[in-house]
Design goal:
This is Dolichol-phosphate mannosyltransferase subunit 3. By secondary structure, this protein is mainly α. Helix content is 77%, strand content 0%.
């Protein structure tokens, strides 16, 4: 099962449980229903905050590849030298 299928199954289960509770499948007090109505919006905002925090953490802990950067710079210098020999000006 792919990750997309897992997320869709979880979303379908949560959505059906929310719909059943909100639309009155169980006899819940009105105070519980008042909390259940905005629950999808709260979950969406929570997921957005989690995604933003994850991206921020990954950016903050990103490791530089100094060896790869040096190798790329040397390849660029070799390419410039080769192109200079062929008559291209920089």
């Amino acid at each position: 099962m792919t990750k997309l299928a897992q997320w869709l199954w979880a979303l379908a289960l949560l959505g059906s449980a929310w719909a059943a509770l909100t639309l009155g499948a169980l006899d819940l007090p009105s105070s519980c229903r008042e909390v259940l109505w905005p629950l999808p919006a709260y979950l969406l905002v929570s997921a957005g905050c989690y995604a933003l925090a994850t991206v921020g953490y990954r950016v903050a802990t990103f490791h530089d590849c100094e060896d790869a950067a040096r190798e790329l710079q040397s390849q660029i210098q070799e390419a410039r030298a080769d192109l200079s020999r062929r008559g291209m000006r920089f």
